[in-house]
């Protein structure tokens, strides 16, 4: 039910703070009927009348002669999926709206016509929903969005493009029409449309897209340069380096920072080579041998060759060339100034450089850095570099380095909270590598409580970004740990409530037999405190099971 702003404000603030005038908040046709309602009943009569009015339907005003022609109908999702979506929009498990939209996009289903208006309104209020809604509008949805300027801007609809061809077929412009639209948005669109156009151009032809940006760069306002430059991350390559190097001298700090980040991310860039040279002058790796070294290795549990020792000299100063490369630009909380410079230098060098240069495995490199006095700065920089590497070159070497860092243990893992630092980049890994990391976390959960927290955060991140459903194996492991955690606590706290809410969104719901087992019996003394959480978990899983099945139903 969509309430008028006046009525919605009264419901939130109360009649004492937001009085409701006779007939206010209801459709005009109901004003006369509601005017006679007593003051003490007016609020709820208005809500009930508005709901009935919307559910019964009403005829809109006759269109003006200049109105656009009607758009023909087209196939959408099944009626069962439509009913599930309507339930979500009416407040039944609203947290699953993103999951419904993501599943519809995966199965190439369009939004049902009955939900177009409420979803367009919702997307105008909640920016994170806009891309998902726009992708599912279909021909009629895009035509409808073009009739309302605020909808058209929200979903990026070109009014001329969609209204002029309303009588055609298909879900949008094809071939040359699409190219014309991108070119028009780049030349004449607002800033958001120009950014979308540049990203689209980069995917089609990175070189031509960068040349188009270079051509207009000198005339672009500062806020446009700040928004457009990050779009080069799509299709980033060494041919972009010369332009990015010039952007390092931009007047705006944010523009320089974006250029520094892109160059640090770009494999083989001159910025990365400059940082390698600076670190080579600061590092001395001493190979250790002899009885003392072997005895020390045995005492530390290392039965192989003794690890070398890294001697580090902090940078003496941060000159203009280093500042131009982004060194020392950001302050590092809890760290000395020179240690912060060291961190920034390490962040610009791919981790594989150290294993190749020192002829050590990733685990051995980490052990060498841990043993160093400035280990926090060295390891934090290494972690940032590993995250950048999997974003741009997710090859086997980058993935091995990432997995080593994110699933490790000891000082590097617990004190630095490396999993939390690398969590945003974890989806860059192949699904099998992600699950390998999460299985390792769950194995560590008994001795490292935060490992379970990181596993849940990964699962929630996947559910929010792409409605990812966990595999049966990971689902069972997460649920079993949650059940053991519940059995150890007398009553749920804020953290456990959040954990159960995440489990409800991410657990595999294809076969719910595993989710019904291993719960405490009714004789457990703490069951009354936990029962509402468990009931909500099971109710959500059943609803998700129904939602997934609804897309597979055939209306015929």
- The assigned structural class equals mainly alpha
Given as residue ranges, the uncertain stretches (5+ residues, pLDDT < 50) are: 161-175
Biggest sheet details = 2 strands, antiparallel
Using the CA coordinates, give the radius of gyration: 29 Å
Q: Gap between N and C termini, in Å?
A: 29 Å
**Widest beta sheet: strand line-up:** 1-2
Number of helices: 31
Describe this structure in words.
The protein is mainly α. Among the domains are: 5-55, no CATH class; 76-160, no CATH class; 173-259; 267-417, no CATH class. The protein contains 31 helices and 2 strands. It has helices spanning 5-13, 31-35, 39-56, 79-89, 97-106, 116-125, 130-135, 138-146, 149-155, 159-164, 176-188, 191-204, 206-217, 222-228, 241-247, 253-265, 270-282, 291-299, 320-324, 337-347, 352-358, 362-370, 375-392, 396-406, 411-414, 418-422, 431-444, 449-466, 472-488, 494-506, 527-550, and strands at residues 283-286, 309-312. It has a two-stranded antiparallel ribbon with strand order 1-2. The longest helix is centred in the last third of the chain and has 24 residues, at 527-550. The radius of gyration is 29 Å and the shape is globular. The model is unreliable at 161-175 (pLDDT under 50).
């Amino acid at each position: 039910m969509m309430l008028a702003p006046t009525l919605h404000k009264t419901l939130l603030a109360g009649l004492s703070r937001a009085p409701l005038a006779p007939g206010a908040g209801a459709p005009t046709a109901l004003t006369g009927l509601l005017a006679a309602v007593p003051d003490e009943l007016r609020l709820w009569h208005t809500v009930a009348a508005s709901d009935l009015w919307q559910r019964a339907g009403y005829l809109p005003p006759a269109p003006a002669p200049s109105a656009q022609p009607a758009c023909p109908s087209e196939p959408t999702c099944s009626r069962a999926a439509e009913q599930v979506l309507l339930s979500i929009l009416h407040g039944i498990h609203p947290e699953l709206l993103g999951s419904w939209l993501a599943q519809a996009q995966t199965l190439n289903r369009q939004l049902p016509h009955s939900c177009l208006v409420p979803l367009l309104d919702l997307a105008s209020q909640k920016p994170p929903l806009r891309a998902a809604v726009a992708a599912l509008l279909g021909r009629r949805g895009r035509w409808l969005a073009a009739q309302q300027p605020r909808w058209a801007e929200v979903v990026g609809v070109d009014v001329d493009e969609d209204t002029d061809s309303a009588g055609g077929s298909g879900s949008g412009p094809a071939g040359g029409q699409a190219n014309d639209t991108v070119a028009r948005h780049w030349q004449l669109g607002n800033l958001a449309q120009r950014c979308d156009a540049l990203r689209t151009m980069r995917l089609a032809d990175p070189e031509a897209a960068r040349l188009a940006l270079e051509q207009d760069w000198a005339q672009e306002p500062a806020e446009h340069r700040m928004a457009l430059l990050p779009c080069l991350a799509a299709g980033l390559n060494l041919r972009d380096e010369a332009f990015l190097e010039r952007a390092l001298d931009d007047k705006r700090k944010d523009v320089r920072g974006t250029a520094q980040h892109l160059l640090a991310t770009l494999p083989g860039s001159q910025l990365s080579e400059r940082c390698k040279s600076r670190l080579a002058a600061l590092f001395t790796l001493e190979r250790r041998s002899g009885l003392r070294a072997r005895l020390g290795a045995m005492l530390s549990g290392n039965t192989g060759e003794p690890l070398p020792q890294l001697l580090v000299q902090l940078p003496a100063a941060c000159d203009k060339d280093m500042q131009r490369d982004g060194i020392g630009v950001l302050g590092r909380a809890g760290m000395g100034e020179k240690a912060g410079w060291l961190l920034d230098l390490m962040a610009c060098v791919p981790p594989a450089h150290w294993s190749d240069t020192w002829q050590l495995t990733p685990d051995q490199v980490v052990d060498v850095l841990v043993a160093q006095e400035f280990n926090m700065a060295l390891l934090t920089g290494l972690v940032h570099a590993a995250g950048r590497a999997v974003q741009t070159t997710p090859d086997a070497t980058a993935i091995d380095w990432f997995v080593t860092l994110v699933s490790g243990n000891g000082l590097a893992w617990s004190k630095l909270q490396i999993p939390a630092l690398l969590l945003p980049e974890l989806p860059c890994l192949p699904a099998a590598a992600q699950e390998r990391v999460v299985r390792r976390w769950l194995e560590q959960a008994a001795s490292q409580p935060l490992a379970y927290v990181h596993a849940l955060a990964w699962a929630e991140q996947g559910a929010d970004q792409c409605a990812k459903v966990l595999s049966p194996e990971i689902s069972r492991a997460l649920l079993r740990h949650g059940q053991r955690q519940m059995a150890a606590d007398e009553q749920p706290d804020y953290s456990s409530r959040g954990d159960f809410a995440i489990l409800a969104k991410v657990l595999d719901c294809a076969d719910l037999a595993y989710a019904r087992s291993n719960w405490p019996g009714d004789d457990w003394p703490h069951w009354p405190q936990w029962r509402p959480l468990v009931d909500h978990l099971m109710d959500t899983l059943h609803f998700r099971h129904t939602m997934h099945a609804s897309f597979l139903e055939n209306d015929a």
